[in-house]
Structures are given as C-alpha cells and as structure tokens.
Amino acid sequence: MERLKSGIDGIDDITGGFPIGRSMLVTGDAGSGKTIFALQFAKSSCKQGFKTVYITTEEDASDLYTQGESFNWDLKTFTDNNILSFTELAGIRAKVTEAEMSIDIGAMKGNFSKFINELPEDTQTVIIDNIGSYTAKLTPYEFRDRFDLLIYELKKRNITALVVLDSATSSEFNEIALFSVYGALKLMKRENPYTGRRERVMDIVKMRSTKTPTQFISYEINSNGIIMI
Ligand SMILES: Nc1ncnc2c1ncn2[C@@H]1O[C@H](COP(=O)(O)OP(=O)(O)O)[C@@H](O)[C@H]1O
Ligand SMILES: [Mg+2]
C-alpha cells in the first residue's frame, strides 16, 4: 500500500505514513493539537507534491497562516503555487443567526459529501477541520449514514483524507466515526502517575493493514509543531 508521510516523524517511523486514497480520523479535546496536526499534515502533503484542500470550519485561513508562521511554516508559498487551497466554512457559520441556523444545518444534513462534490477535480488530499461543526441535530443513525457516505466518496475519488472530529461530538455519537475510517488517532492529555504532571499523549487507535503500537505515544507541541518524545 502506498503511503503519504503524515509529517509527524514519530508516526511515519512507526507506521510508514498514511495510506494513500484512504481516510484517517483525528479526535481530541479542545487545545489537544488537532488543528496543528492537520496543518502539519497539509504541509507534508504539499511538500510531497499532492494537491491539497484544507476545509476549515472554525478558523479562517488567515488564522491558520498565523498558526503556521508560529512554527516557521510557509504555507503561503504553497497557496501561491496552487498546491494548497483553503475552503473557509467558518465565516458562513458565523453570519447565520440562530433562527437561520436550523435551516442552514437542515440544508447541510446529509450533505457532508457536498464538501466532496465541490472539490476541484484534481484534488489528491483533503483535510476537514472540524466536521463536528456540521453535525448539529443529526441523530446517531443519520450521522453514521452521512459519515459513511463521506468516507465512501473520498475513497471512490482516491483522495487521502484527514478528518478532524472534536471529542465532544465524537462521544455524542458514541465514537461510531471510528468504525468507518481506515485509521484513527486520538490526542489526549493525561496525568503521568509517576511525575504527577500532565502530558500530551496520542493513541493510534487503529490503522488497517498496518502494525500499530498498543501503548500511548508521548508528544509535545514546540516551536517545530507536533514532536514525538
Ligand atoms: N507556536 C506554538 N508553540 C508551542 N505550542 C503551541 C504553539 N501554537 C499553539 N500551541 C499549543 O497548541 C494548542 C492549540 O492547538 P490546536 O491544534 O489549535 O488545538 P485543537 O485544534 O485540538 O483545539 C495551544 O493551546 C497551545 O498549547
Ligand atoms: Mg482546532
């Protein structure tokens, strides 16, 4: 199976990278580093020459550039060279009033795959950060249906995807998103029983056709982004 380097060295050393044409899920609490992970993956994908689309639902592109700059990542050069593009769904959401919201969400219902249909033909890599913004009022059955269809359509187009899902939404739907995807990672903070300090750990929950560790992997976020320790 061909792989695309995730851009996080520790993960690439262990797994060889993310399987091309398949979808990976990243879940985690607020501040756990999901967006940084997603940006680091986007950068890596561009560097490897893959046409990459980053769909952002919570921050606008300028905030993501700024986040990248804090790690000395020059994402602008990628967008200037048309290898990377941002689709902002954050602004649209911010504009709708609560009354309009239910209509808007209603229109979005069943339409995760709308994200995919509107992608340029030559898209090779897609990042959706955070799909949890578009699940309001779905029942767990509907969520599973829509999510499965999204993953199916991505695969049909041979797109390598990283789907971010906040842990609150993931647990609201009983973690069923974990079943549809080819691989899943969970970003967490936990207390180290020996030091009493809180540390960041990652669980590679699954990656099909790949040997994965059962232990948590410690990581930190420093001036280079996400680094395994
Ligand atoms: N330049 C940086 N250096 C070190 N840590 C950073 C830097 N930028 C952000 N962080 C850390 O990353 C956290 C935000 O990560 P983010 O990926 O936005 O989380 P999530 O998307 O899971 O909510 C911040 O709260 C901070 O702890
Ligand atoms: Mg985020």
TrEMBL record:
PROSITE patterns: KAIC. SUPFAM superfamilies: P-loop containing nucleoside triphosphate hydrolases (SSF52540). InterPro entries: KaiC-like_dom, KaiC_dom, P-loop_NTPase. Transmembrane segments: none annotated. Residues 2-229 form the KaiC domain. Keywords: ATP-binding, Nucleotide-binding. The keyword ATP-binding applies. One of its GO terms (molecular function) is ATP binding. It comes from the Archaea. This is Recombinase. It comes from Methanobacterium spitsbergense.
